[in-house]
Amino acid sequence: MNNTQHIYDSLYQSAIDQGWACWGGDDRIHQGLSQLERILSPSFVPKSGYILELGCGEGHLCRLFSSCGYDVTGVDISAVAISWANDKEQHYHSNIRYLQADLAKPNFELNTSFDLIVDGNCLHCIIGDSRKIFLKNVHDLLVDNGIFFISSLCSKTEQNQILMHDDIPYRFIPIPEGITTELENADFMIIETVVHQRSEYDHINLFLRKMANK
């Protein structure tokens, strides 16, 4: 299992130092409402209840969920990201709980079960066997028939790809068929899949429903 926290701490600190509003630059903030609509508009998505965002960063999407009336928890492996989110919470007063944690560690637990779990570009940051642990933890955190939304990079070629940062694997870019098989093997039922064509890597959005443990 690779501990990549220091990589993401460094990247988040760089974003702060550059004066960005969030990870990836200010445009991410402006895209928030369209992302919110994409996640919440399907009829099968719970319209109230508990939401967990994985890889929440400084919390811009968490705050949008909170404004819609959900009870929101955000988790990120980066301590810098969570500190940034908590700093913003003092301004927005949105009653969001932010936690620094690694969901790729076995037997991760929270004292809450979630109706909806949102993965905003987190799964492609999980490498190797840690992905099975990550998906099991997500499965265990969902209520029965809970919904799992994933937004992840996927390969434009017929081969999986691994990206490196400081000689450490930090992104796994699977082929679309590989990620759907992986999710079905983790006891999720695929409701909807959309692949968005992009220049360097494509992006896959999936809605899944938790299936009962076998």
Mean pLDDT: 94
Question: What is the share of helical residues?
Answer: 25-40%
The share of residues in extended strands comes to 25-35%
Q: Report how far apart the termini are.
A: 26 Å
The count of domains is 1
CATH class: Alpha Beta
3D shape: globular
Helices, by number, come to 7
CATH architecture: 3-Layer(aba) Sandwich
CATH superfamily: Vaccinia Virus protein VP39
- Order of strands in the sheet with most strands: 3-2-1-4-5-9-8
Q: Largest beta sheet, briefly?
A: 7 strands, mixed
CATH topology: Rossmann fold
Unreliable stretches (pLDDT < 50, length at least 5) are none
By secondary-structure content and strand pairing, the structural class works out as alpha/beta
Taken in chain order, the helices and strands follow as: HHHEHEHEEHEEEHEE
Please state the CA-atom Rg, rounded to the nearest Å: 16 Å
Secondary structure tally: strands: 9
